[in-house]
Amino acid sequence: MAIMRLISHGGSHCKPGRFSRLWMRFWVRWSGPGTAGRIASRLAAWVAPPHLDQVLLAYLTPRGYIDAAAIIYHSQLELGENVYIAPRVLIVQHTEGGAVTLGEKAMVHRDSRLETGQGGYISVASSSSIHPGCQLMAFVEPILIGEGVMIAANAALYSYDHGMSPDVPMRKQSLLSKGAVTIEDDAWIGTGVIVLSGVTIGKGAVIAAGAVVTRDIPANAIAAGNPARIIKNRSEVKNTGEVHEQS
Fold first, then answer.
1. What is the pTM (predicted TM-score) of this model?
2. In the list 41, 62, 128, 185, which could disulfide-bond 146, CB 3.0-4.6 Å?
C-alpha cells in the first residue's frame, strides 16, 4: 500500500503574520506601473497569499494594487481607491480608444484583457469583479458595468462585430456595432458567457454558464442557452443558504 505524504504550505487557514502584514503594508505604498513601482509590487506580493486572496494588497492603501506582471499600455486608465489589478492582466488602448475606468474596490483578476479602440471605452463601477481569463473588448461602442457585478472566469464581452460583406476580404472588414454592452448593478455573469453588442443585462440578472447573450435580459431574470433565453425569475428561487463568490 502506497504511503501518502502530507505537504503543508500555506492554504486558507494560514493567514499572514504580523511581520508579513507590516512588510506588505510598507511596500504596497510605493507600488505602481513604473519601474520602481513594479519592484515595490513584487516585494509586496512576495509574502502575500496567491490568486484571489492577493486582493488584500489593494486594501492596504487607497492607491490599490497593480501587480508587477500586469501589462498597462493605456494613456487613459482611471482608477478609484483600493482597485486590484492581478498578474498578467492586459489593459491596452488601440487607435482612438477611449478610457478604461475602474471604480472603487473593483477587481480585475489574472489573465483578463481590457482593450479599447475606435471610440469604445470601458467603465467598471465600484465593487465589481472580473475573474480570470475574461475579455472586455470595447470598440466602436462602450462596455458599461454597474456596481457589484460578478463576471466569472472566461467570460467575453464584445461591443462590436466584424462586417461580412462578400466583396471585401474578412481581414479588411469594418467594425460594426448594435450599441453598447451594459450590465447593470448586482448582475452575475457565469463562466464562459459571451455578451454581444447592443445588449443590456438588467439589475440583479443571472446569466448561466456558457450562455450567448444576443438580446436584452430584464432585471432579476435568469437566462441560459445559445442564444440565451429566460428560464425563470429570481423571485421563483428559494434561498438555499449563503452564496459565496467564486471564480
1. 0.89
2. 185
